Amino acid sequence: MPKEFEKVISRSSKDKIVQAIFFGIATFSVLIISFIFIFLFIRAYPAIEEFGMGLLSSDWNVSRNEFGLFPALYGSIFIAIGALLVSVPLGLGVAIYLSEIASNKIRMILKPIIELLAGIPSIVYGFIGAILLGRFLYDTFAMRGVNSFLAAMLILGIMALPIIISLSDDAMKSVPKDMKDASLALGATKWQTIRKVTIPGAISGISSAVIMGMGRAIGETMAVMLIIGSVMKMPVPFFNIFDTGNTLTALIAVHMGESHGIIISVLFTAGIMLFTIVAIMSIISDILQTRTKEKFEGKR
Amino acid sequence: MFAKIQELLEKESSCERTDLPDRVKMKVQDFDLWYDDIQALKSVDMDVEENKVTAIIGPSGCGKSTLIRSLNRMNDTIPSVRTEGKVWLDGYNIYDDVTDCVDIRRKVGMVFQKPNPFPFSIENNVFYGCEVNGMDVDKDKTVERCLKQAAIWDEVKDRLDENALSLSGGQQQRLCIARALATEPEVILMDEPCSALDPIATAKIEDLIDELKKDYTVVIVTHNMQQAARVSDYTAYMYLGELIEFGKTTQIFENPKKKSTEKYITGRFG
Amino acid sequence: MSLRKIIALWIFIVSAGVAIYGFWNLYNQSEIGYWTMAGSLLLISVVCYASGIHHHIISKRQKGLPMLVYGTFVLSAAALSIYIPNPLDLRPWEIYVRIPNSFFFSLFMLLSGLFGAYLSFRPFYDYKKEGAQVGAYYVFYLTLLFTLFPLFLIIFNIVTRGMGGITWEFLTQDIVSMGEEGGVFPAILGTLAMISLTAIIVLPLGVGTAIYLAEYAKKGLAVRVIRTAVNILQGTPSIVHGLFGYAFFVLILFDGKKCLLAGALTLAILTLPIVTRSAEEALNSIPGELRDASLALGATKWQTIRKMVLPPSLPGILTGTVLGLGRAAGETAPIMFTAVYFSGAGTPSSLLKPVQALPYHLLSLYRLVGYRDVEQQAWATALILLMIVLGINFIAIILREKYRQRF
Ligand SMILES: Nc1ncnc2c1ncn2[C@@H]1O[C@H](COP(=O)(O)OP(=O)(O)OP(=O)(O)O)[C@@H](O)[C@H]1O
Ligand SMILES: [Mg+2]
Predict the structure, then answer these.
(1) What residues are in contact with ligand 1 under a 6 Å CB criterion?
(2) Predicted confidence band at C394 (pLDDT cuts at 50, 70, 90)?
(3) What is the pTM of this model?
């Protein structure tokens, strides 16, 4: 009896060890996030110390040692908003179609096709955007060059589509079917049900999808870099979608390879800004997503 | 594609009609239903009398829900469903191609097994049906009438703008009944409306059903035979997709004609 | 067959025709004259008027009003647009574009056609709820169309333009004179080597994290923190991964030298959340009774996981990993500062040497377009990259389908 007991104890204590190992592995992600922040900060510190708030000004002049990042920050947000104007209406339409209207068979065909859109590498989007779309807009509008915010917004709009579609699709699927049934049983059409029950029920999940799409657009690097041209200036006037400009991502990607000393440090500061913005967006979107789920799970 | 347009263009002809016997509100006639290849209803025939309560009983999986969902074409929301046969409502075939199932559902309301209020306020829940059907009625009056009819007015009259999900299960179910009454239906279908409720809430709903039959025709699915005996005037007994026996409740319970019915009623089917 | 329906059908046909014609002209940048546009819009307004008048006056119902309004609107838009200067020069406002009339005209045709078609459903369904529903469906089909169209354009262009450049030599030779001659063999090899290494690094980490989250701890502060970290990691821009890889792996671990291993480590961090999430999903899809049954027989938790839970969820885990690798294969920013040289790296020989990779090679080629004759090579490289990435995704989808059938 005691002997068998011993065996049980040793087996279960082994189980404890295994659990500890898995816990160790699981903390890796937390570790990496902290490391990213710490190491970015270490490299960014010299610039922050030297320029302080000057980093947020809009004057960028390498020879005069002025490194204001505002134009790039502005460009990132400007492009992301433009991209959302393209991708939110399209993405929501497709998501509603996929989750509420399409038959199972069509859904099975369409989902992988839309995943295909996510599978195309961003450098390929950038290449196509610069070579084909850039030239197309240049010809149509007789612009000064092939690079423009407009082209970047259009391409990023397409690139943000898959994530918006798949997250809003999930959100609408999480609205319980018996709620939709109740609406249909009251004589509502499918479209009325979508408009009045499904979309309001999924609204926080949908907002989370939009935020994630925006995060994706802000963080996108290669495509933007090739299309926007990476000229460190504000668009003139500030809403001019035909002008060129810069984004945080493109700034880093272009200058990292060919700079030295303090500029590298400035680029790391840009990296921290980027990381912080996107991390906050991830957290907000995460909270919104959980809220959708809890809304219907906590019901009964 | 072209055939579809042609069909849509010609969909003007009128709905198939018949004369139903007096006092018969709905009539199910030789009705079959398949989920893909599985036949869930096998040539069912049944009359639903006006201002009476008709109960459908039978063992689990026999097709009770399927049958009751056929009465307002809710089965149309399941893609794999295929039907044959007719269901008459006031002499109109609701399975005719020209009938709009959205109109049918307005006339034939439904209450589900689990209370399923929408996640908005109590009054908006009740008014939803009027809103989607574009009914030109006064909101406050409608809400009050329906909540009173569903015997829940006194409990919620001070909190009409509160989220409906904050109500208790039994209250939620009565709210769902109120919601179904708002579209001024003529028939109300209830699929095991009490199975998620405690005995006190159940008793309230049963009293309510008794009240409702003055103004409406009620069809109810139930697992609970006492309940069927208590509230219904007519009872249909189903088994494996077939309607085995249909008649006055007293007759079904006191002297069933079929062996299978008797076995079920005396409790020999689990 | 009523007159109302026939008119509605005509509205649809005319509008759709005008919309398609407008889109076609927009796409081809063709010159459109004022009268072509005005004529098309006139057609739309005529059919709209017909429907509106029929409803409003003949049937004496109020519902035809939107049609009359729209007809008038289209007509006046057509009339007023004669005042649009050709080209519309925005340079006085410091916006350096000149928009030709054709652009506006094509756009008008496209938009008014699309909206006209949308309006046609209401009279067709006699202004019932159903008409609004079909109209909404029409909008959804349009969004689908406008989503699939760019996808089609991208794939079509890459395939047709890249095809010509793909020869046996291109696939198997070294990169010569910065890609103008020779092939892309080292870049293909570099990419494949890098993602294989990434797979080896990320698999234990991702699956381990998933096992902890799905099997050991479902709630609690630690889990919340880990989950949040995974989510943040998933949203982190790839360029930030690149910066981190440079700051940590290159500068600290490898003495300031770019190398294959540094690139693979960075890509492993990039793919970690993808692998974790899909592995967790796969584990969660295993029914709980299976675990209970095993535990009730006296198995320890770890035995249960190893014997009952992991084997059936393996296809799901693999699918997620493969998807993550597909993403990694196409990434440029994370490897740009950590692993790749744009020429002269040769075929990968050691974990501690820099390599070449397809996405970065495409970037290098793009930078030469216009200076040297490399556009054909760039398209071919893009095609190869696309084929590798989509091939990987295809494997993942096949895995997933197989996995679906099992449950
Ligand atoms: N959506 C569906 N797809 C396929 N088969 C279905 C579907 N719904 C029900 N069925 C099948 O049809 C038969 C009848 O189901 P139904 O739900 O009508 O039974 P029920 O009498 O209501 O049972 P319960 O008392 O358990 O609610 C069952 O065999 C069931 O498996
Ligand atoms: Mg049932």
Answers:
(1) B 35, 38, 40, 58, 60-66, 78, 80, 223
(2) confident
(3) 0.87
